[in-house]
Amino acid sequence: MTSPIPSELVDTLRSANRVVVLTGAGVSAESGVPTFRDAQTGLWSQYSPEELATPRAFRQNPKLVWEWYQWRRELVSKAKPNPAHYALVEMQELFPEFTLITQNVDGLHRLPGSNIIIELHGNIHRTKCFQEGTIVESWKDTGDVPPKCPDCGGWLRPDVVWFEEPLPEAELESAMKASRKADVFFSIGTSGLVYPAASLPHEALNHNATLVEINPAPTPLTPKADFMLKGPAGVILPELVK
Ligand code: BJW
C-alpha cells in the first residue's frame, strides 16, 4: 500500500523555488540493483559491503574487492532506469532551482537525462590509481587482477568513496550549500545511516526546509520528516509529477 500525495504537499511544491533531492540505493532497487543493507544475492552473499568497501579490505584482498566491483559493474551496465529516475528528470523541469544529489555510483540518473547531479560517492564506471588517485581511462590487459596503473604500476581501483575515505570536496560543498538553501528537501530511497550524506537533510531542516521522505520502510530521519510517503520510489515519484 502506498500513501496518497497529501494536498498540503502539493500546495507546498506549487510555491517552491529551490528543491533538492538526495537519492540512495532504494531508487535503483526497481532497476534490479541490490541495495546495500538488504541481503546480498548470489556469489557475494557471504560478504557485507562494510567488509568490502574499505581501503583496508582492498589492501588485504585486492583481487576479491576488484572482482566484487567487476560483478557489480556488469550488473549495473545491464540495468535500465526505472520510473523513479524518469520522474526525477520531469522534476528538474518543474522548479526554478533543482539539485539532484545522489549517493549512488551506478550512473542511472544520467541515462534518462537528469543533468544537475552531484555524485557524492563517485561512479563505479570510472577507475583510478589506488596509489596516486589519478583517473585512468584505459590500461593494458596483462591478466593482473586488479589491473595495474599504466603510469606507476600500482593497483587500479574503482573511483568510488569507501568507508573512512573523504567525500570529493567540491561535491560535498555544493551539496551542503544547496541543502541549506532548499525550500523543499526530498530524501528518497536511502537508509540515512551513512555520513556525511546523512547530515544533508538535517542541514536543510536547520534552515527551515520542508522535509519529504520517500521510502517503503522507516529510517532514523522519518520522525523529523514533514511528509513521509511510504512506498517504492518508482510508484510514488510518478504520482508526484502527474
Ligand atoms: C527503497 C526501495 C524503493 C528499498 N524505493 N526506497 C558521523 C557519525 C557516524 C559515523 C560517521 C560519521 N561521519 C563519518 C562516519 C563514518 C562513516 C559512516 O557513516 N559510517 C556509518 C555506517 C556509521 N562514513 C564514512 O566513512 C565516509 N567518509 C568520511 O566521513 O570520511 C571522513 C574523512 C575526512 C578526512 C579524511 C578521511 C576521512 C565515507 C562514506 C562512504 C560510503 N560509501 C558507500 C560505498 C560506495 C561505493 C560502492 O558502491 O561500493 O556508499 S557505503 C554505501 O552506503 C554506499 C551508499 O551510497 C551508502 C548509503 O547507502 P544507501 O544508499 O542509504 O543504501 P541502503 O542500502 O543503506 O538503504 C536503502 C534504502 O532504500 C532503505 O532505506 C530501503 O528501505 C530503501 N528502499 N527499496 C524507495 N523501491
Mean pLDDT: 95
Number of strands: 8
How many helices does DSSP assign? Answer: 9
By CATH reckoning, the class of the largest domain would read: Alpha Beta
CATH superfamily of the largest domain: TPP-binding domain
| Residues in helices, as a percent range | 25-40%
Radius of gyration: 19 Å
Subcellular location: Cytoplasm
Cofactor: Zn(2+)
GO cellular component, one term: cytoplasm
Keywords: Cytoplasm, Metal-binding, NAD, Transferase, Zinc
Would you summarize the structure shown here?
Pfam families: SIR2 (PF02146). Its cofactor is Zn(2+). This protein has 242 residues and is α/β, with parallel strands linked by helices.
What would you note in describing this structure?
By secondary structure, this protein is of the alpha/beta class. The chain has two domains: 1-32 and 80-121 and 167-242, Rossmann fold (3-Layer(aba) Sandwich); 34-78 and 124-160, SIR2/SIRT2 'Small Domain', CATH 3.30.1600.10. 33% of the residues lie in helices and 18% in strands. It contains nine helices and eight strands. The strands form two sheets. The chain has a six-stranded parallel β-sheet with strand order 3-2-1-6-7-8, sandwiched between helices. Strand 6 (184-188), helix 8 and strand 7 form a beta-alpha-beta unit. Helix 6 (83-94) runs parallel beside helix 9 (233-240) and helix 7 (169-181) packs parallel to helix 8. The mean pLDDT is 95. The structure holds ligand BJW. Ligand BJW binds next to helix 2, strand 7 and helix 9. It catalyses: N(6)-acetyl-L-lysyl-[protein] + NAD(+) + H2O = 2''-O-acetyl-ADP-D-ribose + nicotinamide + L-lysyl-[protein]; N(6)-succinyl-L-lysyl-[protein] + NAD(+) + H2O = 2''-O-succinyl-ADP-D-ribose + nicotinamide + L-lysyl-[protein]. NAD(+) binds at residues 103-106, 189-191, 215-217, 233.
